[in-house]
Each structure stands twice: as structure tokens, then as C-alpha cells.
Amino acid sequence: xxxxxxxxxxTLLACVTGGATLGAQERDEREAPEVKDLKWAGVESVxxxxxxxxxxxxxxxxxxxxxxxxxxxxxxxxxxxxxxLDRTELRRDMLRIRVFYWKRGWRDTxxxxxxxxxxxxxxVELKVTEGPPTRISSIRLxxxxxxxxxxxxxxxxxxxxxxxxxxxxxDSSIVFLEATLWDKGYGDADARVDTIVVDTxxxxxxxxxxxxxKWPTTVGRISITGNERVSxxxxxxxxxxxxxxxxxxxxxxxxQRNLYESNLFRRAVIIVPPQGDSxxxxxxxxxxxxxxxxxASAGFNTMEFGQVEGRLTRYNWLGGARRxxxxxxxxxxxxxxxNAQFPFQEVLRRPVSDRDADQYFAPxxxxxxxxxxxWFQSPRNTLGLSAFTHRRSAPGIFVEKGLGAGASLTRxxxxxxxxxxxxxFELTRVEASDVYFxxxxxxxxxxxxxxxxxxxxxxxxAVSFVTDRGDDPLDPSRGYFARADVEHASAFTMSDYRYNxxxxxYRRYKxxxxxxxxxxxxxxxxVRALASASEALLGRGLVGANAxxxxxxxxxxxxxxxxxxxxxxxxxxxVLTIDPGKLLDAPNDTTPAxxxxxxxxxxxxxxASALPSSDFEPRPVGGSTLLEGSVEYRFGIxxxxxxxxxxxxxxxxxxxxxxxxxxxxxxxxxxxxRYTTPVGPVRIDLGIKPRLAENLPIVTEVIDDxxxxxxxxxxxxxxxxxLEGTRKGWRHVLxxxxxxxxxxxxx
Length: 747
Fold this sequence. Notes:
It is a single chain. The protein is an alpha+beta fold and 747 residues long. Among the domains are: 1-29; 32-129, membrane protein fhac (Ubiquitin-like (UB roll)); 135-212, membrane protein fhac (Ubiquitin-like (UB roll)), CATH 3.10.20; 218-288, membrane protein fhac (Ubiquitin-like (UB roll)). The chain contains 16 helices and 32 strands. The strands form six sheets. The chain has a 17-stranded antiparallel sheet that branches. A four-stranded mixed sheet has the order 25-24-30-31. The chain has a three-stranded mixed sheet with strand order 1-5-4, covered by helices on one side. Strand 26 (625-638) and strand 27 (641-653) form a beta hairpin. The chain is globular, with a radius of gyration of 34 Å. Residues 1-27 have low confidence and may be disordered.
């Protein structure tokens, strides 16, 4: 058979099968047309998102927001999710809507539909006539006032007189009343609705309910089975329930959580006998987990380049649920070759020296050994001891090496609400450019800078409180998170760096519909050096000098978890450095130098501000105050892929608590994508930096007549624009985007 005949045969088969498929599709779509548009009308008193979740009818939608132009011209299932009208389900939806309203107090709601042609499919409109609600005229609650007081009743009741007769909220109120009594030691308490009398004509309902605490309950015998390597004493130490003590529901939940969080058990079941007996004999059955765990991981992000990590954990070390952790990590791998190569950020555009490049592009590392004793003197207490060493780098700012040890005591004030007291003794050595010390501390003398580069003690005493009420530790959609930290370092704590530092953060999450979350965050901080810091660090007091604060304790903004329109730590006070050769040496024989050596030593080189921005390197110096805020809207677009729209704002300054809003700040919008994985969402964010030009001071290095290298701040500032003289058009717009690639939500 010739190629032409084969082609003709395949064409004929395609036409036949395609025609048959098309015909079947036309018949199907005539009987069940595609829902091109779904509209609601008359919905005022309930959440439209919740109402939409209660029905089956859906409209066709584009899976990807960016693929909307494709969806307008194609029904390709890769990009478009199509939904068709099932008229039987639509009739059921009308009943579902009435039931939805009836349960929430609107008992006369009526629903109608309108189906009209649209773009080869149909437009479905659901018209709701809510009508007047049936309201609660009175609630009579029979309860013993000496056991359940008025304030506890108010906190438990989710409905009040005058509210619509919401049966869902009423059921929740009954559950909360029972739970309140269970937590007070009445484990057999019973709460129930006795009667609901509805006056249909008056649209009013009276409710009568009873709360019966019955009798106080106590913990009887606690039996433990299933343990082999973990001693019974260790298990009993984890229990907040004690034999002979009151039986409370929250103590039962806390005990089971303690067993799971110890990582000693695959399964921990606490069985309580049914109601009817005031003495509760409790049976605990456990299934032990392996007592050793080894983990290894590798990855990369746009700021820290490549990283590898290993961890060895020994559970129940020496008994008593003690845990021993060894962790080692190496980062900043391949930094020299990956710097400024897509998708990695340009963390250091122009090193001022080979030593500078070696510092910031060399691998970072850390190694720690942590000992944890849970249930220390109480099931709510945890004792921690640690030893550590590290090398950290904030490119263009500082490199720090340290080693030391620490101790902490943590008490769980409530579920996921620990309060910690910690002490950390560290010997630290800061490697930063002379410019950093000169601009931050007004210390430009080489001998003083050498003293600051020497090994010093950083030993703060810290108190921190955290409460986490999010519904998911990796990707929360509801709830909130709050954290507060206070640090003090002085001669009392055996620290050379001496300061007071306060910082805090609050996050809030609210879900909308099935796959949308609105999240917002505010974060702030303040740090102030003590007057004795210069005496401890330099051996003498300084007059008129800036405060000496360890670089790690200063505040910076910008980056994947901060103001995303900027690179890591790039928002805030900065200075420009420049090679003195560009100021003193003529580019060729016919062009004179911009200034003489004497002028440069005096800080007077007016022509320097006229040089192009590409000749300068911006260096962050950090601040003593920080105020940040972010708002982010996340929504699903296709399977495990979400999109996010965000606006970040931040300001870093040199002041006190009353001047938090003063300093160098910016507001940057942006967008990004998340892909859900078992270890958290993989995140790609693109932040837009709206303001590019900044008026920054200039600093350079000059060797004086005695051969001494001196840091010289110039009297002139520079209008610095990193995009000055670069590409135009769309490529110029792309240069204003800052890319961040990481794992986990920004907050």
C-alpha cells in the first residue's frame, strides 16, 4: 500500500471516529449542556462560599489563571475543567439550599432557577428568596450555678436570644457545655436540648435545655500494655492523668499527645470505660517505634545555593524518654559559580577584594548536639542542653564563626503554647568589611576594628513565648500564630556584646471557599546596646559613637520570608562602596583623575556622585528597629498547584520603639506559585520592587602617606539605581522582578 493510500485511510478513520465522537458529544451536550456561568441572586444572610459548597452544580473554569486566553479558544482538558448540567441534581440542589437555610433559621426560604443559553452552553442562575428568619425568643438553661457559672455559659453558648434559630450553632453549644464540665472533672456530664417550641406565625422559638453534671469523676487504676523497651515508669511520667486524681478530658488529650510527641510509639491508645462509673479505670495500649533514626537531605534555594544535611537521633537514650540529636549541615555550596545565574540571586555583585569573595562564597556549616529531657519534674516541662559550632554568612554584610553551649527550660502553658527560658554562651568572631564597622558603629580606626574582629562572648538570657493555633503546621488555612521574644545580655550574663532586644510576630489565616486562604502578618523588633558594651569590647568607653550591637542581633528586611520585592537583607540602611582606583586613577592618559588623594582622604570628591551606578556596590548595614507587614491571598488553580497574590511592606531604621515607622522602607506587591508536597509547599515568588533609585552615602578605602589603609566616608551621596543604563522595554520590566525559590510558605 502506498504512502498516499495509507494517508487517505488514516484520514478516513479520523473523520469517521472523530465524527462519531463529535456526534455523541453533541447528543450529550444537548441533554446535559455545559455550565458556562453560575450566578447566585438574593444571598444576603449566609456565606455564599459555604452555600456553594453545599450544592453539586458547578461552572466550567480554567485550571490555570495564566492559561485563561487558551481556555477562551479551547476546551482542552489540560487547561480547562468542564462541568455539565445534571437537571436531576439541580432539582436536588434546590432542596439542599432550602435545608441549608432551614438549619440556620430561615425556614421559609424559596429557591428558583433560570437557565439561559450562553456561548454554546447554558448560564444557570439560582434565585434565593430568603424570607424572614425564625428568631430565638428565649433560652432557658437548667444547670447548677455553683458548678457552671454565668461566664462559662456565655463562652460555651454560640446562640443568644434574638439570634436566628441556628440548629448547627445550638448543637455546638451543647457540645461545648459538656466539654466545659468534662474539663472540670465531671466526666459523665450530660447536656441536652429538651424542647424547641416554634411559633410559626410569630417567627419565634423558645428553647429549653438541661445541663446535668452528675457526679465528680476520678482516675482509678491505670494499666499499661504493649511496652517492651520503654519502661512503664517513663510512660507514667508522660501522663498528666494521675491515679486518684480528678478525671478531666483535657488531661486525657494532653497525656495522649505527650506519648505521640515523644516519638517512642507508633500507636498510643487510651481507653476509658463508658459513662456510669465515677471511678475511671484507664487502659493504655502502646506500640513502640524504632529508637534510632537517620535522615539525610539535599536541596537548593535562590539565596543559599546548594545545601546538604544529615541527622542522627537516638530516642529513649539512657531511658526516661531522653533524646539525643546530632545534626550537621553544609550550605552555600557552588555559590561562586551559581551566583547571579538563573534562578539564583546575585548576592554579591562586585567583591571589593579576593578576600571578600572568599568569605562570602565559601561554604557555611553548622554542627549541633542536642540533649532533651521531656517531662522534667512535670509532664508539662522539657529540659534541653546543647553544644554547637557554626559558620554563617550574610553576603555583603558579615561572616560569623561561633561555638558554645546552651540550656533551656520549656513549660507548656497550654496545647501548642510553650514558654521558654534559655541561656546561651557563645564565643563568636565577626568577619565583616571595615566599611561595616565604620558605618554601623562609627569605629573606623584599624586597631578598634581589629578588636571587634577578635573572638568575643555573646551570651544572652532569653525568654520566649509561642502560641500556634493554625490548623496545619506546614500550610495553615485557619487560625493564628503569635511569638514574642525578649533578650538581655550584660556582664551579669558574662557577655561582651551587651544589649536589650525585643521582637514579636503575629500571623492570621482565614479560609474562603474550598481552596482559598487570606493570610496576613505583622512583625516588629527593637534592639539597644548597653553603655558598657564598648568598654567590654574595646577596653574603653566611646563618646558620641553609635551603639555596638552584634550583626546577628541587628534587624534586616528583604528576602523570601520578608519583603519579597528585595533580595535577602537588601531593604534597609545601606552604603555604597567603590574601588578607590576609579576615583584616583585616570582611565587613560588624556582623562584626569576625579579627585586627588588629599581630597579623597578629606572625604571630598564631588565628582564621585556622577559615576554610573554600576561602579558601586551596595552594602546593607542593618538597623535597630524593624516593622514589617504582609498580606497574601492564596487560591487553587490546578490540582496541587496554588497561586498567591501578595503585598509586603517593611521599614528598617535607627531609633527606638516610638520611631518604628521611621527609616528606610518600601511596599512591594508580587505573585507566586506553590506546589504541595509531603514536606511542605514548594514556593516560587516574584516580588516587584516599585522604587529603584535611592540616595545612599558613599564609602571607600584609601592608603594614606604612612601606608595605613583608612576607611573614608565621602561627603557626597549618590542617587543609586541598579538598573541605570540597562535594558529597556519588557526586559527592563523583568529586571524589576525579584525571584525567590524555597520550601514552605512565606508565613
